[in-house]
Amino acid sequence: MNEAQIDLAHTVALGLIDDEDHHAIQTIIDTEDPTLCTQFLREVRETREALAHLASATPLPPPPSLRARLLAALAAEDPPVVS
């Protein structure tokens, strides 16, 4: 699979396909290369599994010092210049 096909598989896994993507997906699935179709469907499945795993992970609270460090970093930055 090439980079564009991998990106397309990720788009499918995220449920973000549009008409153009739908056509590209159909082209891959209807291909005469069964290996390409198998690789594509495996990439979609593995991406969905990874997303499900991430969604089920228990978030950890940030360390208490993070807020102070972020505020100090923001205060140290020069304010943006408005033109």
From TrEMBL:
Q: In which domain of life is the source organism classified?
A: Bacteria
Annotated Anti-sigma-K factor RskA N-terminal domain ranges read 6-52
> Is Transcription among the key words of this record?
yes
InterPro entries in alphabetical order: Anti_sigma_zinc_sf (IPR041916), RskA_N (IPR053877)
Keyword set for this entry? Transcription, Transcription regulation
What is this protein's record name?
A: Anti-sigma-K factor RskA N-terminal domain-containing protein
Q: Which organism is it from?
A: Nocardia alba
